[in-house]
């Protein structure tokens, strides 16, 4: 490909609204251009990268016998109404009506669509297991699109769905897909972690995320420094072994004035007690107005995702303070577990459940109880106790191996065991081997195809520009003749072009009338794996080779270049 014929509009200055490295470089190197907030055009270089990523995905999906297909991006709202997600998905859902006044959405994901299709045509367990997938644009009306391709309103995904008649089949495909995803991300050239994830709006019983560590990541990866344990912050667990302190002497319960102690730090100073011997109480609210009081020790924060999953709610949020005061009689900072109304459910973190003679708010403004004991003052039951805290850096990992460390990460893939969440609501059933009608068991498996461009850019780019792994680089080789008016350079460049293509590699030849410095700067910016510079020694058949990732440069006979390409590219 001649560079004069390539639509590659590079920029000399980084746009002011480009906050992260990947956004800056993909714009600057002419890979993407914004069309509207959160929606990008993929220019020729980016499209070639996408094509190579998709090719890797297709190869690995074929290896696990997945069927590729394609469903509409415009979906009838009725499907999502039947599953319940039309009401619960939130403002991220694009909703509109057609000319017949029928409700539609732009698909952010396609569990309902595939469930309906499979449920209509598969009626016997003998037709299962089945694994289908597509590569398609998705749409989510992000309130604040940012970071280029990392948070957009339109994005390209590979979404796959498994259908089995038993949970053993689900487990088998789930494990196969995890292995396939590992191969995909290995081939793409990413550093990544497989972490325990939250199913969130997808639902289901189990999930794993694939996260690429990067400073621009919006997720926090929590991992052990001494084992393979890793989870996102919402699901991460630290190690805690319950302690029975019930035999310790119980002090007299007292209510004291604490007008200036609304925070744990202030209460700790007032009582001269460490935060881990005090408790904090927050009130959360479910989607139907249900209230729960969640108690943790003062040195930990309440984890809303863990609370949500424990309660089985589609979402929870912190309750409004005015409503809480009307219900409990006190404002935030004076709340506690004693004397809660019957319709406020109590949840206690396991660390707090082991405390004796501890202090907490008295549900009166400016007052706290001291010397609280659960068995005497609250009658706590085992069913109310769990892990409701957000893990902290430096704590022992839940597997007991190593301390927890935090890093930022970009979610690049997510796999879910959905069970019967969608088949039950949409009526997708098969007859099992005993002739009984049973709900189809499902899994869902997604990869952010367009997001991978940003993730690779964040991890691999340097101060000169993008650095593409050979497996997904838009071109394998960049041939840069310094002066095409020189007959020797022009002839050698043309010969190399033919040799490279004949050997099965893709090349880009810089035939522009630009200074050498401009050509080299643009070559570094767009980040192709191998650059071959044809310069003053062309008459001797000598070229300079530059390997973009390692930065290694050396001269060699042009006649030997093609033979060495396989070694340098190692796809």
From TrEMBL:
Pfam families: HGTP_anticodon, tRNA-synt_2b, tRNA_edit
Cited Gene3D superfamilies: Anticodon-binding domain, Bira Bifunctional Protein, Domain 2, YbaK/aminoacyl-tRNA synthetase-associated domain
Domain of life of the organism encoding this protein: Bacteria
InterPro entries: aa-tRNA-synt_IIb, aa-tRNA-synth_II, aa-tRNA-synth_II/BPL/LPL, Anticodon-bd, Anticodon-bd_dom_sf, Pro-tRNA-ligase_IIa, Pro-tRNA-synth_IIa_bac-type, Pro-tRNA-Synthase_IIa_type1
Enzyme Commission designation: 6.1.1.15
Keywords: Aminoacyl-tRNA synthetase, ATP-binding, Cytoplasm, Ligase, Nucleotide-binding, Protein biosynthesis
Enzyme class: ligase
Keyword Nucleotide-binding appears in the UniProt entry: yes
Xref: PROSITE patterns: AA_TRNA_LIGASE_II (PS50862)
GO molecular function terms noted in the UniProt entry: proline-tRNA ligase activity
Domain notes: Consists of three domains: the N-terminal catalytic domain, the editing domain and the C-terminal anticodon-binding domain.
Family annotation (HAMAP family): Pro_tRNA_synth_type1
Family classification: Belongs to the class-II aminoacyl-tRNA synthetase family. ProS type 1 subfamily.
Subunit record text: Homodimer.
Listed PANTHER family: MITOCHONDRIAL RIBOSOME PROTEIN L39/PROLYL-TRNA LIGASE FAMILY MEMBER, PROLINE--TRNA LIGASE
Protein name as annotated: Proline--tRNA ligase
Lineage: Bacteria, Bacillati, Bacillota, Bacilli, Lactobacillales
């Amino acid at each position: 490909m001649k560079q004069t014929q390539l639509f590659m509009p590079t920029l000399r200055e980084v746009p002011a609204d480009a906050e992260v490295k990947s956004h800056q470089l993909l714009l600057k190197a002419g890979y993407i251009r914004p069309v509207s907030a959160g929606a990008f055009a993929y220019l020729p270089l980016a499209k070639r990268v996408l094509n190579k990523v998709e090719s890797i995905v297709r190869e690995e999906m074929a290896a696990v016998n997945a069927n590729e297909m394609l469903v509409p991006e415009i979906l009838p709202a009725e499907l999502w109404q039947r599953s319940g997600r039309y009401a619960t998905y939130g403002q991220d859902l694009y909703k509109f009506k057609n000319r017949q006044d029928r409700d539609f959405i732009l698909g952010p994901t396609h569990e309902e669509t595939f469930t309906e299709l499979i449920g209509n045509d598969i009626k016997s367990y003998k037709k299962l297991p089945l694994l289908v997938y597509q590569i398609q644009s998705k749409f989510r009306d992000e309130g604040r699109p940012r970071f280029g391709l990392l948070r957009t309103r339109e994005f390209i995904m590979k979404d796959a769905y498994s259908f089995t008649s038993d949970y053993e089949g689900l487990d088998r495909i789930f494990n196969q897909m995890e292995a396939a995803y590992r191969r995909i991300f290995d081939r793409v050239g990413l550093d990544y972690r497989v972490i325990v994830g939250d199913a969130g709006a997808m639902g289901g019983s189990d999930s794993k995320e694939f996260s690429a560590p990067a400073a621009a990541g919006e997720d926090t990866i929590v991992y052990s420094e001494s084992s393979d344990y890793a989870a996102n912050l919402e699901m991460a667990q630290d190690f805690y072994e319950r302690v029975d302190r019930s035999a310790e002497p119980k002090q007299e319960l007292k209510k004291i004035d604490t007008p200036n102690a609304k925070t744990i730090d202030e209460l700790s100073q007032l009582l001269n007690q460490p935060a881990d011997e005090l408790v904090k109480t927050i009130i959360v609210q479910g989607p139907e107005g249900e209230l729960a009081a969640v108690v943790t020790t003062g040195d930990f924060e309440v984890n809303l995702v863990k609370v949500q999953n424990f309660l089985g709610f589609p979402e929870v949020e912190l309750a409004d303070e005015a409503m809480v005061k009307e219900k409990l009689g006190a404002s935030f900072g004076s709340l506690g577990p004693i004397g809660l109304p019957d319709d406020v459910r109590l949840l206690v973190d396991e660390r707090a459940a082991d405390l004796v003679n501890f202090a907490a708010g008295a549900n009166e403004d400016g007052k706290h109880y001291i010397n609280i004991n659960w068995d005497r003052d609250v009658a706590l039951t085992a069913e109310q106790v769990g892990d409701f805290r957000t893990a902290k850096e430096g704590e022992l990992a839940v597997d007991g191996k190593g301390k927890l460390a935090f890093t930022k990460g970009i979610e690049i893939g997510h796999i879910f065991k959905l069970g019967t969440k969608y088949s039950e609501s949409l009526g997708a059933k098969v007859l099992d081997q005993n002739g009984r009608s049973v709900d189809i068991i499902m899994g869902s498996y997604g990869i952010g195809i367009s997001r991978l461009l940003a993730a690779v850019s964040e991890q691999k780019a340097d101060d000169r520009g993008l650095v593409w792994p050979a497996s997904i680089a838009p071109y394998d080789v960049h041939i840069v003749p310094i002066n095409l008016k020189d007959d020797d350079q022009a002839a050698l460049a043309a010969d190399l072009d033919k040799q490279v293509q004949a050997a099965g590699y893709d090349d880009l030849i810089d035939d522009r009338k630009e200074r050498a410095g401009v050509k080299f700067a643009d070559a570094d910016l767009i980040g192709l794996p191998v650059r071959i510079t044809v310069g003053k020694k062309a008459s001797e058949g000598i070229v300079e080779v530059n390997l973009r990732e390692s930065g290694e440069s050396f001269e060699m006979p042009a006649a030997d270049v093609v033979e060495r390409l396989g070694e340098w590219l190692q796809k």
